[in-house]
Amino acid sequence: MKKRLNTKNNNKKKQVVEKTTNLEKENEKTSNTNSTREAFLTHPLGSLITKNALPAVASMLFMALYQVVDGILVGRRLGPEALASINVLFPILAVFIGLAVMIGIGGNARIAVLLGAGKTDKARRILGLIVTLGTILGVCGSAVVVLAFPKILYFIGTSGELGNYAGQYLKALYPFFTPMILLFILEQSVRNDGRPNMATMVMAAMAILNIVLDYIFLFPLDLGIRGAALATGLSQSIGATVFLIYFLFKTFGGHTGLSLGAPGGGFSAIGTIVTNGSSELFNNIAAGLTTFLFNRIILSHLGALGVAAFALVQYLLMFGMMILIGMSNGTQPILSYNHGAGLFYRVQGTLSRLLASSFIIGIIFFILLQWQTQTLVTLFIPEHPDALDLTVSVADTISWSMLFMPVGIVGSVFFTAMEKAIHSLVIAILRGLVFILIGLAVFPLLWGTAGIWITPVFSEAATALVTTFLIYQWMRSEHLKSSN
């Protein structure tokens, strides 16, 4: 009898201890989640932006670094035609990249808003949902390449040596579509979890690995253009795996903050993600379409050498663009958290600081490209003087776009963070398609080949005007709301 009573008492004690332990764990989770939220909502904006934007900028710079080094190694080993082949593939890859960006940006903007409102469980389910959607997209993208490979090459209009390079590159890259998509999605999710430094370290290690593999595959192993694709695919797969392990460890270890939950929210959540990320999707699809149009027009005017020159200028602009995108993406959680909490004055302060710093970056890169283009281009193609001279001429014109680009990039990310999908989509449509089409239709007729290079400058300048108007209207509306 006494043994039974002792057993019952011991069981009760165990249950009490277990309940107490579970309660302490839940309180710890809530406390840590609230501390991240409190930091975004109360810390000084200057230090908060620096803490979040600098790691994001570093990540984007590392991405730009490996892409530029990839271009340098490909150009030096295989020549301008190989460089051009990667550029002509972009219209096809842009569709999958756009869908991945839509899921990643749209989903993570929603996650940050939910975390800002204190709804951690819902944020976890959205993370599970976007990881699932990204996996499905990657598998479908690889399947499309397998089933329609000849049609893809025919569509982009490649032939001869250019077509051969493009085909080899795509065949080597498509098996890695799924991890490449998950890398983009999960990097931003790690930042939403308040771990910007970890995200940066992973991206830095991935970039260094990519560069090392590029050299090994292109030179000692002599794998040609396939080696460049394999280096990109393998390094990004490793980066995605690290991020995935991080969230799986948090999920199954019962750790605090953002973790992978069961996919939830249904079609309404998917609709919100698609709506939030629609401008980013359109940006990428439009970029693919306009790149296709640029390539066709340039081929008709200057041949493959012109496409190579245009591709080289894109490499030169990449560092400036990546810094602007990194600053905007790094600041996005601050904007979304404070928007979710209804703190308009902090949203306004964050935006003004972001715009000011972005303009400084734009001016610096404009000056750099005006003065040092020839030195930079020589890194890519030192033994091709004709391509070198043409690239310098193209860069002299297109570099003016850096003075206007900050407004369009910041504006698009800002309105996505505010869940103002229509505003963001308008910016994307005008910047990525409408103004480009107008420029390509009019300027080459007026100024010949020079009109092609003027088009990006016109597009960025016109977009800056429209974006400024939309931001002014939004601020005026929010100011009236806060006054009432």
Automatic annotation (TrEMBL):
Residues 1-37 are annotated as: Disordered. One of its GO terms (cellular component) is plasma membrane. Residues 1-14 have a biased composition (Basic residues). Coiled coil: none annotated. One of its GO terms (biological process) is response to antibiotic. It comes from the Bacteria. Pfam families: MatE. GO terms for molecular function: antiporter activity; xenobiotic transmembrane transporter activity. Signal peptide: none annotated. The keyword Cell wall biogenesis/degradation does not apply. InterPro entries: MATE_fam, MATE_MepA-like, MATE_MepA_subfamily, MdtK-like. It is a multi-pass membrane protein. Residues 15-29 have a biased composition (Basic and acidic residues). Keywords: Antibiotic resistance, Cell membrane, Membrane, Transmembrane, Transmembrane helix, Transport. The chain crosses the membrane at residues 53-74, 86-105, 126-149, 169-186, 198-221, 227-249, 256-277, 297-317, 354-371, 398-418, 425-447, 453-472. It is found in: Cell membrane. Belongs to the multi antimicrobial extrusion (MATE) (TC 2.A.66.1) family. MepA subfamily. This is Multidrug export protein MepA. It comes from Clostridium formicaceticum.
